[in-house]
Each structure stands twice: as structure tokens, then as C-alpha cells.
Design brief:
Number of helices: 12
Structural class: alpha/beta
Shape: globular
Largest sheet: 9 strands, mixed
Distance between the termini: 23 Å
Length: 473
């Protein structure tokens, strides 16, 4: 892992796989607000996914700033946001025990509440602005096959209820035993399951419409404009120079909303933020699956990994389709070589096959025959960003005045990015720190100390049978 983490990420690849959500592309996919790049702006945002779009919207709407330039290497929302699995799901209990141990009860509770509230805020924004993005809110279920994970889930939920309080919305979980799980969720072989609030959404549609709102308020969006370098203008100025093949821009502030690609432009985070390629497939359901579609989203949790799956809600395009992803540990060396790569033009063949087969395997006889048009509607890959501590890095870069970062969302961008953007713009505006600290986790803030932590891979994933021992360490 050390060698993979030390790789300097390449910039976004040309001609990536096309995700289910991006076909057909949004009318703004290749948008350029102006024919030429401006030479001077107050703020440059690099990246047009949910982080960049949310930051841009906050800057032009909340603070009425019009000198904001967004640069995107490919088409708009062509990175991880436009390639995800459509889940708005926190699974906060899975990291809660580690968070209590490492951050303390107050901070662990803050993280759980932040994740829950961010999900609710995304769907509320879609409703408020009448964004057509197949927004659905309901229940999810984690189907658990591993004894260590089953023990851990029960202990974690007990702790989250104790710390947050039984009535806290972020502490609402319901367990089902093996028989109940089989009957209610149509899967066999599980030890049990746990259900809680979640949702699904077309993140691509959500972000593209948010970008449209920001454009109407003055955002300058420039797609297909790769940033090749950023650096301070000179020793006497606080401005930054942003270099692209189309020209050079001078900016008072630069925000890196570049997630897994961040170390390409910011060497201090190499080995701190590490890319991980994910694989997703959209599938037609089998003939024996419920005719009205599934009623909950899923995760399937086993010893060294998991898959996640949503159903497409009624009235959406391809209603009833299943979108499933994960499986990264199913390649050789538990998917080691998916780390450190930013190549989303292809996929690992072992992982790709496992993704194609997994839903039918989980549902077994409940799946039936494949659809006459074939099981797979589309399959694709995308690049996520993971940090050495398992948290995003948000705030000013140490010793680099004017350079800001909001990146490394651990494959959970729809649970973290939207409200993180509010936090970042509050920091940039010199807002009320006491109020910000009330709801924004301290563990997410960028600091010099966080640049010293060795990367340990994806955290909170393995549920070994010796969990009881490790939980005491």
C-alpha cells in the first residue's frame, strides 16, 4: 500500500467510461460562459462535482460574489459525482466506535449528526429548487454476512444511542435477525441486518442543475480546461497563478475541489489523499424480483468489503433498475492496484465481472431469469479520494495563504460535500467560528498535523472475528 499511496496522481483522463447518469449528457456539459478565460478573478474553483458546485453556489448566492471562475478538466460533473452509485447513505454506525476512540464522544456525535443532516439537506435543496434528479428518501438496509461485522454493528448502535440519545434522528436503527432478513429483504445466508434512513438521487442531475442556478447568479464555468499548475504569483503578492493550456489566470483565492486528483496539483497531500478507482453497474432486475420494484436500498457487508445498491424510483428513467457498486476487494491482492490510479477509461476485469454477477447472487432464487435485453444496461468506473485518517480535508492549506481545499470524501460525497461547502465558505468569509464549530466536525479541518499521518487504506471496513479484542485497544 505504501507504494500505491506514494504515486503522484495523473490528471483526469480523456475519454473516460460513460456513466449511466451522463447518458445523455446535460445541455451544460460542455459549457463555457465566456469564449476567453478572464485574466483576473477573485476566486478560482478547480473541479465541478458536488463539492465545487456547492461551493460555487454558496459564493455567488450567499455572498453575492460574481468574480468566481470554475475550471473543469473534462465536461461538467465528469468526475466521481457523475459516476457514483446514486446513494445518499451515511452508515454512520460503522465508524462510530473508532470515532469515539480517536476523537471522543462529542466529536463522534457531531460527525454522525453532520452526515445525517447533510443527506437531509441535499434532498431539501432539490425540493426547494424543484430540481428533477429522481430524489427519493426512505430506508436502507445493511445485509450482514460476517460475524465480526454483526457483533460490531450491535455494539456500535448501542453506543450511538447512548451518546446521541435514543430520540436523536441520527440514532434510529432497527435490527432484523436472519429469518426476518430473508423474508423482508429477499436474501438468504445473512446473519441479520440493520435498517435506517437513507435515500437515492441522480447526483449528476442534481449538480448540473445547481451549476445552472450558480451560472444565473454570475458563475463563470469553463469546461474542458485542464489546470496544469498552481503557484503563488510572487513573493510580494498574495495572489495565485493558475495555469491552463488556454491561458493563465491570476486569482486572490484558489479552491481545490478535486477529491482523488488533488495531489496532482498540490504535492503536500501526496500520500495523504490517495485515489481509489470504483466500479459501478446499472442492471435490469431479474424476472422474479418484485414487480413494483424494491422498497429499500441495500448494502451487502462481508469480511473484507461490501457492495451497495439502489433501485431506481417510480417515475424515473428506467424505473426499477438496480445500480450496484463496490466489490473493490474482489481483484487480486484485494484490489491493491485500484489504489493510486486515476484511470477511469477502463476497469479491472475481475471486479467488473463480480459487479455484474453480484446482485443476482445475493438474491439467488428471488432473482429469476435475466431480462431478455440483458442484465447490464451500463457499467463504468470513477475515481474517489481517501485520506490517511478516513476524513475529508477542509480549509486553508497550511503555509499557503489563499489556497483552500475541500477534498477526500472517502467514497461518501453525497453524505459530506454539500454541507462541507457551507463550512468552507464560512471559513473563507471569516464567519462565526463558534457557530461553525457547533456543527462542523473538527476532525474534517485541514491542519499541518494532518499532513503527517501515514495512509492506512480504506478504514472501518474489515470486521474481523477478533473485533472484541481490537475494540479495547
Amino acid at each position: 500500500m505504501d507504494e500505491r499511496a506514494a504515486i503522484t496522481p495523473a490528471p483526469p483522463c480523456l475519454s473516460p467510461t460513460v456513466s449511466y447518469w451522463q447518458d445523455p449528457p446535460h445541455p451544460l456539459a460542455n459549457h463555457r460562459t465566456t469564449t476567453e478565460l478572464p485574466e483576473l478573478v477573485s476566486t478560482v474553483i478547480v473541479g465541478s462535482g458536488i463539492t465545487g458546485a456547492s461551493i460555487a453556489y454558496n459564493l455567488v448566492a450567499r455572498y453575492d460574489q460574481s468574480s468566481v471562475l470554475m475550471l473543469e478538466a473534462r465536461t461538467a460533473c465528469s468526475g466521481a459525482t457523475g459516476r457514483n452509485g446514486g446513494h445518499t447513505k451515511a452508515a454512520s454506525y460503522r465508524a462510530f466506535l473508532d470515532n469515539v476512540k480517536d476523537q471522543g464522544e462529542e466529536e463522534a456525535a457531531k460527525i454522525a449528526r453532520f452526515e445525517y443532516n447533510c443527506i437531509k439537506a441535499v434532498h431539501a435543496f432539490a425540493r426547494e429548487h424543484d430540481i428533477r434528479c429522481d430524489s427519493w428518501e426512505g430506508k436502507t438496509v445493511d445485509i450482514i454476512y460476517d460475524k465480526g461485522h454483526w457483533i460490531q454493528a450491535q455494539k456500535a448502535v448501542s453506543e450511538i444511542r447512548r451518546v446521541l440519545g435514543d430520540d436523536d434522528p441520527a440514532a434510529q436503527y432497527q435490527f432484523y435477525d436472519a429469518l426476518e432478513t430473508k423474508e423482508k429483504f429477499l436474501v438468504d445466508g445473512a446473519l441479520g441486518s440493520v435498517s435506517y434512513d437513507a435515500g437515492s438521487i441522480s447526483a449528476y442531475s442534481f449538480v448540473m442543475e445547481m451549476l445552472d442556478l450558480a451560472l444565473k447568479k454570475g458563475l463563470n464555468l469553463q469546461t474542458e480546461t485542464l489546470v496544469t499548475a498552481i503557484h503563488p504569483s510572487d513573493a510580494t503578492s498574495k495572489d495565485w497563478i493558475v495555469e491552463t493550456p488556454r491561458g493563465t489566470i491570476r486569482a486572490g483565492k484558489v479552491i481545490l475541489a478535486t477529491n482523488g486528483y488533488t495531489a496532482y496539483l498540490c504535492p503536500p497531500v501526496r500520500g495523504i489523499i490517495v485515489p481509489l478507482r470504483g466500479t459501478v453497474a446499472a442492471q435490469r432486475p431479474g424476472s422474479a424480483m418484485p414487480k413494483g420494484g424494491l422498497k429499500t436500498t441495500y448494502s451487502f457487508i462481508y469480511g473484507n468489503g461490501y457492495e451497495y445498491m439502489i433501485f431506481r424510483p417510480a417515475d424515473s428513467r428506467f424505473a426499477g433498475d438496480l445500480v450496484i457498486g463496490g466489490c473493490s476487494t474482489k481483484a487480486s491482492d484485494e484490489g491493491l492496484y485500484e489504489w493510486g490510479t486515476t484511470n477511469d477509461t477502463t476497469m479491472d476485469p475481475q471486479i467488473g465481472q463480480y459487479v455484474r454477477d453480484s446482485a443476482a447472487q445475493y438474491f439467488g432464487t428471488q432473482w429469476g431469469e435475466d431480462h431478455p435485453d440483458g442484465r447490464i444496461r451500463k457499467q463504468w468506473t470513477g475515481i474517489m479520494g481517501y485520506s490517511s485518517q478516513g476524513f475529508p480535508l477542509v480549509g486553508p492549506m497550511p503555509h499557503k495563504e489563499g489556497l483552500w481545499i475541500a477534498a477526500s470524501f472517502q467514497g461518501s460525497g453525497m453524505v459530506l460535500c454539500f454541507d462541507t461547502a457551507k463550512a468552507l465558505t464560512t471559513m473563507m468569509d471569516g464567519g462565526d467560528e463558534e457557530e461553525l464549530n457547533r456543527w462542523f466536525p473538527r476532525a474534517f479541518r485541514m491542519s499541518e498535523e494532518r499532513l503527517k499521518h501515514e495512509f492506512r487504506g480504506r478504514l472501518h471496513e474489515k470486521g474481523a472475528l477478533d473485533f472484541e479484542v481490537h475494540s479495547q485497544l
